[in-house]
Design brief:
The chain is largely without helices or strands. 0% of the residues lie in helices and 0% in strands. It has no helices and no strands.
Length: 43
Amino acid sequence: MPADEDRPALTPPVRLWQCCSCGGTGVASLGETCPDCEGSGHS
């Protein structure tokens, strides 16, 4: 069994894009949840 130093590090998945309607905030201009990304900030 390999030592911990020999195993590659696990990296969580990263989303590199953001919703173009809310700018990644998840909130629309009137304060409601963004309908395009459903509040996640990612489309």
